[in-house]
Amino acid sequence: MIWRGSLFRKYAVLFVVLVSGALFTSGALEIYFSYQENKEALVTLQREKAVGAATRIELFVKEVERQISWTTQPSIVAPAAAMEQRRADYFRLLRQVPAITEVSYLDSQGHEQLRVSRLAMDVVGSGDSYAQDQRFRVPKSGKTYFSPVYFRKESEPYIRIALAGSGSSSGVTVAEVNLKFIWDVVSQIKVGEHGQAYVIDAESRLIAYPDISQVLRNTDMSQLAQVKAARAGASALATDDVQVAQDLRGRPVLTAYAPVPPLNWLVFVELPRAEAYAPLYGSIQRSGALLLAALAFAVVAGLVLARRMVGPIQALRAGAARLGGGDLAQRISIKTGDELEGLADQFNEMARRLQESYADLERKVELRTHELSEALEQQTA
Questions:
Q1: 174-202: per-residue pLDDT in tens?
Q2: Per-residue three-class SS string for the chain
Q3: CATH architecture of 82-178
């Protein structure tokens, strides 16, 4: 259906729609890409913090493992003095690594022969068998054993690290490591004003969190979307529905994580979405205000431009109407320098010729009338 109405209305609506549409599309795209870029920058920053914390934890564990490893070296003293030498080595290990609270020695058959502790009395020759325990079987297979995280007397998280010496007749050194150091690492991560970092173990249980009571409750984090995605693989966390997830308190947060390879732990860094996007929302509001101002300017400019375009056409229409009404002296004055000015000149030229033709016709009529009058007078004389 053809849209009927005045040219001014058509031009005004056309210009306003085109310019406003272009401005709105450009502004919307700018806001969208700015949103995506800012979100990715925030996630990248949080991921870097998570990676930094995971690296510190990994280095801590590797350093503890390295310190334990030298106690597994074969003794060069007589067998009778070997146990005292080992006990001295364990005392030295406790002094050098404050995180280790207890060290025990299992002989080649898996029987405990020595236990040195900060928290209890030392035990020599208990003979307790751990031959079927993972703390003995895994090291004897040539690997370092990392136990699941456990809580000693329901207070602080611990982990056992066990290494075997070289040779089939060597024993195994088992160290209990206090993970309170991990709490210090997490507490040093600053994420905005209300952000937080936390660590979960291989079973997705909380082992480090700003609220210690959550750790002591042995909180299971496996149902959180970000934890599920991280366990599923790193690629899953690149999707939008995982970068923005809910934290333990049910708040929407922007989240990133990093793994701790030797332990299969995960470090998460999270920032409340409202706080993370606050600068972006401010930018969007400013962009929106500028967009509205630009739209208002576009409307005014469209109306002015439409009026300037329609003005000469209206002048042509009025001039043509006066010419049609018999006013042959009417001249149309349009100074636009385009086809409309040329059309006005043609109208003026047509009016001039019509005026000349009309004047010539009047002269001829007057002359013919005069001739007829003279002929009539002669006939009646």
A1: 999 998 888 888 888 888 888 889 999 99
A2: CCCCCCHHHHHHHHHHHHHHHHHHHHHHHHHHHHHHHHHHHHHHHHHHHHHHHHHHHHHHHHHHHHHHHHHHCCCCCCHHHHHHHHHHHHHHHHHHCCCEEEEEEECCCCEEEEEEECCCCCEECCCCECCCCHHHHHHHCCCCEECCCEEECCCEEEEEEEEECCCCCCCEEEEEEECHHHHHHHHCCCCCCCCEEEEECCCCEEEECCCHHHHHCCCECCCCHHHHHHHHCHHHHHCHHHHEEECCCCCEEEEEEEEECCCCEEEEEEEEHHHHHHHHHHHHHHHHHHHHHHHHHHHHHHHHHHHHHHHHHHHHHHHHHHHHCCCCCCCCCCCCCCHHHHHHHHHHHHHHHHHHHHHHHHHHHHHHHHHHHHHHHHHHC
A3: 2-Layer Sandwich (3.30)
